[in-house]
Every structure is written in structure tokens, then in C-alpha cells.
Amino acid sequence: MEVLANLKKHFNTLSASFLLVEEIEQIAQIQEFKKETIILKEDSYVKVIPLVISGLVKVYKEEENGNEVLLYYIKPGESCIMSIMAAEKM
Question: What is the tens place of the pLDDT at every residue in 60-82?
Fold first, then answer.
């Protein structure tokens, strides 16, 4: 029920598709992460697509010299387009 309530609250457009909501509800897990936790890494196998319901997720690319290049932030009600694109390639 918690997954369904969060989908309706934060992802209104997704909740319009009954079949999609049903599938997400069956496989979704609500997780909390501490600040600075790396959720996904570049060139890694993508097995989850984050749907952010609270907080802010920083998406960045690391250059060869170790510098971070900020790409964008994911806010509540958003997902990571890079994760979706990577998952489609699999």
C-alpha cells in the first residue's frame, strides 16, 4: 500500500496506467539512503530505476582526473533518465 500511495502522490502520470502501477507495486522497494551514498555508478549494470519520493539525488559524471561534473539533480516526483536509457540497452 505504501508504494501505491507514493506513486499516486508523487508520480501522477504513472498512476494513470493501471498495468504499470500494478507491475511497479509488485517489484518496487522503498529505500532510504544516507547523504553521499552512491546509488548507481557509470558503466554499471542497471537493475533498478530510482523514483525519488523525498530528498534530492545528485547525478554527476566523474572525469578521468577525478573531478565531478554535475549533470542534474533528481527531485521528488522525478526519476533518472540516464538509468532508464541504460536499462533499455540491457
Answer: 988 999 899 999 999 999 887 76
Whether residues 21 and 42 fall in one domain: no
Collapsing DSSP states into helix, strand and coil, what is residue 80? coil
The boundaries of the domain holding residue 8 are 1-30
Residue 4's H or E segment, with its range, is helix 2-10
- For residues 57 and 86, state if they share a domain: yes
Cell numbers at residue 41, please? Answer: 555508478
Q: How many helices (H) and strands (E) does the chain have?
A: 3, 2
pTM of the model: 0.74
User: Residue 30 carries which DSSP code?
Assistant: -
Looking at the fold, whether 51 and 84 belong to one and the same domain comes out as yes
